Amino acid sequence: MLKAYCTSNRFNDEAKQIIKNAGVELTINDSREGIGKDELISALEKYDILIISIFSKLTADMIKYVKTPKIIATLSVGLDHIDESFLKSPLITVINAKTANSLSVAEHIFALILTLNKRVEEGNRLVLEGKGNRKYLHEKPEDISQKTLGLIGCGNISLNVMKIANAFNMKILCYDKYLSNSTNLINKGIRFVDLDELLKTSDIISVNIPLDSETKDFISKDKIKLMKPTATFINTSRTEVVDTKALIEYADLHDTFYVGLDIDVDNYKELFNKYRKNVIVTPHIAGTSKQAIYKVNIEVANRIVESLILFNADGTTKLYSSDNK
User: Fold this and answer.
1) What's the CATH number where 71 sits?
2) What kind and span of H or E run contains 86?
3) 203-217 average pLDDT score
């Protein structure tokens, strides 16, 4: 019998049953603390299928412990916690949740856009400070209808953002390195442009790309300077996709430039240790709604089962039970 191990105690019952119905013996880590590196290595050696969260880091020095075919499934969209050696190994099939939390992230993007443009956070702060009069707002609220929305990346998150944007009658620009011409999207009124044009002309910009060796500091200090001093900039991708320090410096220089971030802030505590009326930061929660987590579990479980079928159909890459190793 194939054996699977899940490092997360949040793997829901329906997802567990999907795995068990496929004839896989599933063990769940019940500790809220997760598992350490030594335990992760042990799991790599012992189990055929490893289900991890973003808090379990598979580093380059750990690949040597993989001697037989494995499925490694991550309960996330991003893969930056898994070293490239695992992604390239012929012994390993890596699975992620490609679509499950995309709507949740899209909704969060618009929550940030509306909170900033409607001055919700600033207004609430003024009330708490005893200045509950709209005359104290540093700038009047704005409508987002008819504004130009620039999307960097045209994956599942951006596709859901487009649907919401249409309800606000927004004009949509898109930049994607791998997709510069989509007849389906063009027919829906989406215009594809290069990155510099998008940054220069968009009223609202949302970054929706994964972090890898090519996208680190993709929105650099020089790119930030191209944006309108009246624009709204949203990043719900990994923190390192944007030069975050330069971004906040630009916001400090222009109080009409609005920033909404949903990122890991551990390395930026000093940068975000004061209130700014034009900046909102949430601690990377966009894709972690109750509904999103549920859907991620189900998608990953189903993709594991699909991969088992492929393994069993191809004798050259058959996933052998750990009982026979």
Assistant:
1) 3.40.50.720
2) helix 84-88
3) 90
Query: For residue 90, is pLDDT > 80?
Result: yes
Judgement on whether residues 295 and 146 belong to the same structural domain of the protein: no
Which residue's structure tokens are 């630009």? 250
Using DSSP's 3-state secondary structure scheme, residue 233 falls into strand
| DSSP 8-state assignment for residue 75 | S
Helix H, strand E, coil C: the string for 100-153 is CCHHHHHHHHHHHHHHHHCCHHHHHHHHHCCCCCHHHCCCCCCCCCCCEEEEEC
**Residues 179 and 231 reside in one and the same domain:** yes
- Using DSSP's 3-state secondary structure scheme, residue 88 falls into helix
> Per the structure block, which two tokens stand in for 45?
């050696």
Verdict on whether the full-model pTM lies above 0.85: yes
Q: Determine contact, residues 125/303, Cβ cutoff 8 Å.
A: no
Tell me, yes or no, whether 178 and 136 share the same domain. Answer: yes
| Distance of alpha carbon 123 from alpha carbon 224, whole angstroms | 27
Instruction: Domain of residue 148: give its range.
Output: 102-282
Closest CA to 204 of 246, 257, 240, 241: 257
Q: Are residues 92 and 131 in the same domain?
A: no
What integer is the mean pLDDT of 297-323?
70
Dihedral sign for Cα atoms in the order 283, 291, 5, 34: positive
In three-state secondary structure terms, 315 is helix
- Classify residue 34 as left (phi > 0), alpha (psi -120 to 50) or beta: left
